[in-house]
Structure to design on (426 residues):
């Protein structure tokens, strides 16, 4: 072939020619249970490993903790060219009550153009897409001028400690750019995420007989009500959003108005600290004044405020109440983070969404958090783009359109060429 564009179009057509094989791969992934918890990835990693070996790819297993396996494979020539990472997680959230599903959550069936089952959108369709892309490049013996690494991780749905950060900290994977095939909108990959601040607050009181309340004892639940009222004031903070990220925020608000139109009322989450009082437990019985109460809170942080500033705010407000308390962090921890849309990996994905679909594409901000932060912590530009029916993620009757799986896979394979051949003369 004489040019990059010709190679790209050839590979896009190869995806089209073999789309039934792509969908079958995604279906097979759904049929393999990989709920986290418990997080045992043995069966699904074994399947992916054999799939890659069948096309001649070399693989390496890395057990981060008991039965949680990271699988890594690399193709291409290491001759000073760029190194691209395609990443996806193999675990899914629990299926829950099977009686509330309209179909078997591990069926992997295709019905009326939809692929059905737990993980269809988050993210076994995206995972299948990057695996299929990687395997097809290997099978066709495409002479890449750089390297493409496929990283399959086991532990995203419970915080990711034994997945992406585990690999990066040990330098098992390294690269100049990364795509995570997480669910996204059809034309809008995710370039940034809000920060995450989860904490437990335990408030103490003094027990006594319930018949003497409020004159006796010190009711921990009442103290917690007052504490919660102060915690909720995080939402009211006037955040000074840095100028450099304002274009991304404005594009994301446009996205919420014009694409996910049901999200239009929620535009303010992009520049406010959200506060979810997710769990509460306190007291012993109704006729006893409770001596302790505990809540778990999930806050998501916009640009312009740090975890340290949130901690200081909370202590100031709680101290002013004169109550005895303990505040403990747990779970996801990060400040808001993003990748510039001028980075080559971002341009490669966005440009090829338009190339494949003929539709305007642009990157947006995610109001939640993800594994992308770990790559940014290691100075690797990253974005997320994957097939999804967004309303079904983590719910019953999860599904994804077959046409979206095929479209994303075409973007994945075209982006490899644009990214790795960027400075190459063919």
């Amino acid at each position: 072939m004489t040019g990059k564009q010709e190679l790209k179009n050839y590979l896009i057509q190869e995806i089209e020619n073999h789309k039934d094989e792509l969908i079958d791969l995604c279906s097979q992934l759904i049929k393999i249970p990989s709920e986290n918890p418990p997080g045992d990835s043995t069966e699904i990693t074994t399947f992916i490993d054999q799939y890659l070996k069948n096309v001649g790819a070399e693989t390496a297993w890395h057990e981060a903790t008991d039965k949680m396996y990271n699988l890594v494979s690399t193709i291409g020539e290491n001759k000073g060219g760029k190194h691209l990472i395609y990443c996806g997680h193999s675990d899914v959230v629990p299926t829950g009550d099977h009686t509330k599903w309209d179909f078997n959550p591990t069926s992997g069936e295709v019905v009326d153009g939809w692929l059905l089952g737990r993980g269809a959108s988050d993210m076994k369709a995206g995972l299948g897409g990057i695996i299929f892309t990687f395997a097809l490049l290997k099978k066709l013996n495409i002479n890449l001028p750089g390297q493409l690494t496929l990283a399959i991780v086991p532990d995203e749905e419970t915080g990711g400690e034994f997945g992406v950060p585990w690999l990066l900290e040990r330098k098992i994977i390294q690269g100049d750019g990364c795509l995570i095939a997480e669910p996204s909108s059809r034309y809008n990959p995710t370039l940034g995420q809000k920060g995450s601040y989860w904490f437990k607050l335990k408030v103490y009181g003094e027990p006594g007989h319930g018949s003497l309340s409020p004159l006796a004892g010190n009711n921990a639940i009442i103290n917690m009500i007052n504490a919660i009222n102060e915690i909720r004031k995080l939402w009211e903070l006037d955040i000074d959003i840095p100028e450099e990220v304002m274009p991304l925020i404005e594009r994301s608000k446009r996205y919420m108005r014009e694409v996910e139109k049901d999200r239009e009322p929620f535009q303010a989450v992009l520049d406010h600290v959200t506060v979810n009082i997710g769990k509460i437990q306190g007291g012993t019985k109704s006729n006893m004044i409770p001596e302790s109460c505990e809540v778990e809170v999930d806050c998501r942080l916009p640009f312009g405020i740090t975890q340290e500033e949130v901690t200081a705010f909370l202590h100031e407000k709680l101290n002013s109440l004169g109550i005895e308390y303990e505040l403990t962090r747990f779970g996801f921890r990060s400040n808001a983070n993003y990748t510039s849309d001028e980075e080559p990996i971002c341009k490669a994905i966005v440009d090829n969404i338009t190339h494949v679909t003929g539709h305007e594409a642009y990157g947006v901000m995610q109001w939640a958090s993800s594994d992308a932060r770990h790559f940014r912590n290691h100075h690797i530009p990253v974005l997320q783009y994957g097939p999804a029916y967004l309303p079904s993620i983590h719910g019953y009757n999860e599904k994804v359109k077959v046409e979206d799986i095929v479209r994303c896979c075409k973007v994945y394979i075209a982006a490899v060429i644009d990214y790795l051949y960027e400075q190459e003369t063919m």
User: Anything to note?
Assistant: Residues 120-139 form the longest helix (20 residues).
